[in-house]
Every structure is written in C-alpha cells, then in structure tokens.
Design brief:
The structure holds 2 protein chains of 2 kinds.
Chain A (H helix, E strand, L loop, with lengths): L5 E12 L2 E13 L4 E5 L6 H9 L6 E3 L4 E5 L4 E3 L17 E4 L3 H4 L6 H12 L4 H14 L5 H5 L8 H13 L5 E5 L7 H18 L2 E6 L2 H7 L2 E6 L2 E7 H6 L4 H8 L40 H5 L5 E2 L5 E2 L2 H10 L1
Parallel strand pairs in A: 3-9, 3-10, 7-8, 8-9
Antiparallel strand pairs in A: 1-2, 1-4, 1-5, 5-6, 10-11, 11-13, 12-13
Chain B lengths: L1 H18 L4 H11 L6 H11 L5 H15 L12 H5 L2 H29 L3 H16 L2 H16 L18 H38 L2 H8 L4 H19 L1 H18 L7 H9 L3 H29 L1 H8 L1
The chains are: A alpha/beta, B mainly alpha.
C-alpha cells in the first residue's frame, strides 16, 4: 500500500473556554490517500470542521491539541508534522501550499473591498516564485478553467459583483491555483441551490481527475457524499463512529447512528413514508456522556458496556470499521 | 447633495433665528433703553424699515442666503452693531481648527491602538487599555481642565489660560504669533481630544473585533497570508469604513464640548462667543452665523468622508458611479 498523503493519529482537540476545557474532537484517526475523496459526515457540532481546520492549523487561539495527537503530511520530498509547526510562516505549507480550503459561504470568504484577482495573485505570490504578471495570467486561466465567462474582466471585479455559484467557482479556482495535494471542502455546496450545487460538484469531480489531488469533503448531506466520495467517515460528538467505502456504508450501515442518518433522508421513490429523524438532540460538548457518546440517543442501547466503556473502532473482514458494542458482540457471536 | 443639505440647513437656521421672540430692531432699541435712551414705536418701525425687516420671510431668507453664500457676508450683529465678519474674524476658524486638531489627534491615537488591542490576546494589555479609555469617558473635560490648570499654576506659576500671550493678543498673524498660539493651543486640543480618543478607541476596537471574526479573515489565513499583512490588508482596512463614517458626528460632539472648556480656560477667542451671543445678549444674527458656519463645516467634512469612503470601499464607489 502506498503511503497516505495525510495521516491523522489520535487527534484530540480541546478548547479552553470560561466554562473550562471543552472537548471538540476525541481520538480521531484517519488517512487520506493521494487522489482519494474522503467524505466526512456528521451533524453540526460533531467536530468535522474542527478536524479539518486542525489539518491547516486554523483553529482559534484557545485551541489545545493533545500531546499524543499527530498529523503527518507526506509530500514527495518531505514529511511535515503539522501539529509541530510553530511559526505562521512555517504553516504556509499547509495553508494554501499543499492544502487548500473552500468554505461554505463563498460570499463571506472573499474580502469585500479587495478584487477577486488581487486575492488570487496575493496567494500565488506567497506560494510560488512567480512574478505578478505570471500570477495574473495563471489566475485568469484558472477562472476560465472553472467556467467563469470573461475571466479577464471578472479578475478585476469584487465578490459582490459575482453571483453565488460564480463565487464558489472563483473560490475553487483560487484554491486550486497553487496546485495543492489536498483540497478541504467545508460544505461547499450547502449555500447553493440544487442546480448550481450539481454543477459545482461536477466541476470538482473533473478537477480532481485533472489535478490528481485528494479531497476531504465535509458535509451533513449523505446524498452529496454518495455522489462524490470514495470513502466516508461518520463523526458523532467528536469521534469517528463508522468508516468504510461509501457505497457499502450507505447500503448497509453498521452503526445505529449512521442508520439513523440514512433513515432521516427523504426518499424520492416513496414520498409517503414518514421521515424518521434521529431521536433526541446532540448533547452539549460540555456534558459528554460517559461510555459510548451515542448512548443518550441510541435505539439499540443494551446496558452496561454502552454506559461504561468507550467502544473502539473494530475492523471487519472487508476493511469497514464501526465503533459499537452491539456490532462487536454480534460479530463475536458469529465467529 | 451637499448644496441641497446646506440650503435646507440655512432655512432651518434662519427660521430658528426668526422664531426668537421680537425682531432685531426691537431688541436693539430695548437694549438702548436699558442704557437710558427713550424710544417710541416709531423708532422701532423706522429701525425695522432700515434693516429691511418689513419684507416677507422668504425674501429675507433669500437675501440672507445670497449674502452668506455669494459674498460670505453675515450682516451686522443685532446688539453690538458690528459687522459679524469682523467680530468673528479668526475666532471661528481658530475654534474649528482646535476641534479638528482634537479630532485628528484622537483618531491618530485611537486607530493604531484600537487595532492593536483588538488583535492582541493578552488580557493585561486589554484590561489596561479598557481602564484608560473608561477613565477618558468618565472624567469630564472641565474637571480635567481644572486639574491641569491647578497643577500648572502650582508647578510653573502659569495658569495656561487664553490662547495668546499678552504681547500677541492683538498682533497681526505672524510666525511668532502662530508659535505662541501653538504653545498654548495644545492644552484645549489635548483636553478635547482626551474624551474623544476614549470614545474613538471603543469604536475602533469594537469594529475591529467584529471584522477579525469574519470568515474572509480565516479564508485569507488559510491561503497563507500572515502577520502584518493579515491584520492591515484584511480586517483593519475593512473596519476603517465605519470609523470614517463617524468623523462628522465626532466633530459635532467635540464642538459642543468646546464652549465649556473655553470658558474654563478663558479662551475668549473660541466657542465662548456662541454662549455669550445666545445666552447673554440674545444676539440672533450672531448665533445664527455661528451655527450656520458650524453646520457648513460638518457638511463639508461629511463630503470629505464620503470621498474617502468611496476610495476605500468599492461597494460605495460602484454605487456612486452606477
């Protein structure tokens, strides 16, 4: 097996707040292979954005990473220990260099008083030895590549002069202009309407093939994940509770939470069937349940081990993993 | 736009001047009366005719606006019977200059300090800044003026009052007179700037904190923008728009505080004239002239800030140019 592009080991992220240390992410481990699309799914507050931001060290000043946490970025010529980076200048390799990020709100992610072009050129000048003229040429080329008409004129415009879908395309153009190895897409289509959403997803798929980069695709929308990702990791309250190839997980979810998420999706073939949301609310991170983090909402909770013991991710013969005591017990009974 | 505003302002000011009970003629003759001369109704009628007060309201407004805008001529003061332009002479411009200097001083301090404090995480820096600026907001100007006067009288034997030394009081403008002016004007500028700075500091800091939390700053940092560039090019630049917007308002506030400070420091050359003309002698012509000049200055400043805003913010620029 080839080395993963990025490897996250035992990532635990806590925020220091006035109410004390709040755990946002706990013991998360995941690998992304070069060129692979990994979907990261979960409700708001599940820690998916915090995990993604950790890869770029974008979490706020009150963030504490646990000592045993490791994030290793394997580039052709070097390995980078992301959490060991100290100075802002050194972090550039994961901020726009080998990793780029696009955000949920394309309007809010461009500075309103600086032209789109200036922001693109600025980034290229930081990450390459290009001249200003070369950077401008490449930027216009990238705008054209993502399907923005009249790119030379658009280059000199401001984000408020772009439509919503156009802004997200410009954002993608900007993110890809430095040819990153990994693109983090944080709910990139949530704020767009469905037709634009489909166009943007198609564009991203094209570009992945063309640029050969990996994507970490964050969303709460399992439908979008099914279209885009190779593998999926489901997060709940800061922990990964199930991971595996996307089709297998969607066809046959092992973890009761994943099953709940899938049941909550509307089904076009049976519009009369009632939607069954996952019962209850996600608990406050200030008040994490002991034992399995899902035990407050789990329909198949069966007592002692669920309340006392944190279930570990267990791999089955096909390489899929789920962290559930029930799954572990059933499997034990089978063998 | 600025012209229309000024016309409206002139109408309001003129109406206010007219609404003061009694006409200029009556008031002057009544004033004469207290000096011992006898007056009759006919005297008043004759005086009104001489001043053109028998003409209709809008005609008088028109001629007043015409004189003010075309000739820069405010006419005569009611009571003092002196030409207002001569009476005001440099006084208005000195007052305005002091207020503008206080305004500039306050923002020269508030902008960098506010930006720095918003971007700093150190609680010690933030708390001490907050303490100083609350002190600035809470301590009244006149108290500060009195404290400084007391201290300087005790220590230097000079009360620092007035805007000019004796030998320059009535001299023509010269370099020496200007230097003398500066050596004394710093005190009212400092006192007026003191609370204005505290106020501006709070504004700048709040606006900066607002901008720093926005997604485009995170996005810029995700592209590898760092350090001073990440601070000044992104949040600071975008926070400046609303700051500039508040300049006109601030000038007005400082000008309102000027008379009190001027009274304590006995700056006869400055805003005290306004109080005197309004309260003591009921001189509507003079008060109207001062109010009109002040409003005109604020309209002019707003015009300047609009241009600055258009330079700074492309949304405003595109809005203006369509």
């Amino acid at each position: 097996m080839t080395k993963p592009l990025i490897s996250v080991k035992d990532l635990t992220v806590r925020f220091r707040t006035e109410e004390g240390l709040v755990t946002a992410v706990e013991n998360v481990s995941l690998d992304i292979a070069p060129g692979e699309v990994l979907g990261l799914v979960g409700e708001s507050g599940s820690g998916k954005s915090v995990t993604a931001k950790a890869l770029m060290r974008l979490n706020a000043g009150n963030t504490r990473y646990a000592d045993e946490s490791r994030i290793t970025l394997n580039l052709d010529d070097q390995g980078v220990e992301v959490l060991a980076l100290k100075r802002d200048r050194d972090m550039r390799i994961v901020r726009g260099g080998a990793i780029s990020m696009i955000f949920q709100e394309p309007m809010a992610s461009f500075a309103p008083a600086i032209t789109i072009g200036d922001q693109m050129v600025e980034q290229l000048l930081i990450h390459s030895s290009m001249t200003r003229v070369e950077a401008k040429e490449l930027s216009i080329e990238m705008l054209a590549r993502v399907g923005i008409p009249e790119p030379a004129r658009r280059f000199n415009q401001y984000s408020f002069e772009f439509s919503g879908g156009m802004r997200q395309r410009a954002m993608i153009a900007m993110a890809l202009s430095t040819r990153p190895k990994l693109l983090i897409a944080d709910e990139p289509t949530t704020a767009l309407d469905v037709t634009i959403q489909a166009q943007v997803i198609a564009l991203m798929k094209d570009l992945v093939a063309e640029f050969g980069m990996a994507i970490l695709f964050i969303t709460h929308d399992l439908g979008v994940i099914a279209q885009t990702a190779d593998r999926v990791a489901v997060m709940y309250l800061g922990r990964i509770i199930e991971t595996g190839p996307v089709r297998q997980v969607i066809r046959d979810p092992h973890h009761p939470y994943t099953r709940g998420l899938l049941n909550a999706l509307p089904k076009l073939e049976d519009l009369d069937s009632e939607l069954t949301p996952v019962p209850g609310d996600i608990p406050s991170p200030l008040d994490r349940p002991s034992g399995c983090v899902f035990n407050t909402r789990c329909p198949v909770m069966f007592g002692e081990p669920c309340l006392a013991e944190i279930p570990q991710l267990m791999q089955d013969e096909t390489g899929r993993m789920a962290a559930c005591h029930l799954v572990a017990r059933n499997r034990g009974a089978k063998t | 736009m600025a012209v229309i505003t000024l016309l409206t302002v002139s109408l309001i000011v003129f109406t206010l001047m007219e609404m003061v009970p009694g006409t200029c003629a009556e008031r002057y003759l009544a004033f004469k009366n207290t000096q011992g001369s006898q007056i009759s109704i006919d005297d008043i009628k004759a005086e009104e005719k001489r001043l053109g007060l028998d003409r209709p309201f809008f005609v008088r407004w028109g001629s007043w606006v015409g004189d003010v805008s075309l000739k820069g001529e405010f006419g005569d003061s009611c009571i003092l019977r002196l030409n207002i332009n001569q009476l005001l002479a440099d006084k208005f411009w000195i007052s305005l200059g002091i207020c503008l200097a206080a305004l500039i001083l306050s923002y020269l301090i508030a902008i960098p300090v506010g930006i720095f404090s918003a971007s700093s995480n150190s609680p010690a820096t933030n708390n001490s800044l907050r303490f100083v600026s609350y002190l600035g907001l809470a301590l009244p100007n006149f108290l500060l003026a009195l404290i400084i006067m007391l201290a300087s009288t005790v220590i230097f034997g000079d009360s620092l009052t007035g805007l000019f030394s004796k030998e320059f009081r009535d001299a023509a403008w010269s370099w020496a007179r200007f230097r003398d002016f500066l050596s004394r004007a710093w005190l009212p500028i400092f006192i007026l700037g003191w609370s204005a700075t505290a106020f501006a500091l709070q504004t700048v800091r709040a606006l900066m904190l607002d901008e720093i939390g926005k997604l485009y700053v995170t996005a810029a940092s995700a592209r590898g923008v760092t350090g001073a560039k990440l601070l000044w090019r992104y949040p600071a630049r975008h926070a400046l728009g609303p700051v500039i917007n508040s300049l006109g308002f601030d000038l007005n506030r400082i000008f309102n505080e000027l008379p009190i400070v001027a009274l304590i420091l006995t700056l006869t050359e400055a805003g005290a004239l306004l109080i005197e003309s309004l309260a003591r002698s009921n001189d509507q012509q003079l008060a109207g002239a001062i109010i009109f000049l002040l409003t005109a200055s604020i309209v002019a400043l707003n015009f300047v800030t609009d241009i600055l805003l258009a330079l700074l913010d492309p949304r405003v620029r595109r809005g203006l140019m369509g």
